[in-house]
Amino acid sequence: MNTEPKVTRAKKKPTLAEAQAAVGGYVQLVELYDGSQLIVNEEGLLHNLPLNFEASEMAGQVIVGEALLLTGKHRWS
User: Fold this and answer.
1) Which of 4, 36, 40, 67 has its CA 20 to 30 A from that of 76?
2) For residues 34 and 63, is the Cβ–Cβ distance under 8 A?
3) Under 8 Å CB-to-CB from 63, ≥6 apart: which residues?
4) Is 19 a member of any domain?
């Protein structure tokens, strides 16, 4: 069983409730260098969530837990 967290590309602009469900808690918005955004679990480190290697590489910082990628028209304002 693979328990490594992943980055999921949003197929539509998520509501707050949808974003919270996707990352499993309170959300934090991380702006990426290419203009896209990652929604991550704001309290992920406190909950000892596993390292998300793909999201960390994209963001240039440590990201833990599931991440939701927002691009183009799916970005939050």
Assistant:
1) 4
2) no
3) 30, 38, 40, 44, 51, 52, 55, 56
4) yes
Residue at 52 is within a domain: yes
Could you report the per-residue pLDDT of 38-55, keeping only the tens digit for each? Answer: 999 999 999 999 999 999
Count up the domains in the chain and report the number: 1
pLDDT digits (tens, 9 = 90+) for 18-39: 999 999 999 999 999 999 999 9
Q: How far is CA 48 from the centre of its chain?
A: 16
Q: Residue 17: CB partners within 8 Å, gap ≥ 6?
A: none
Query: pTM higher than 0.85, yes or no?
Result: yes
Domain of 21, in residue numbers: 7-74
Asked, for residue 2, whether it belongs to a domain, the answer is no
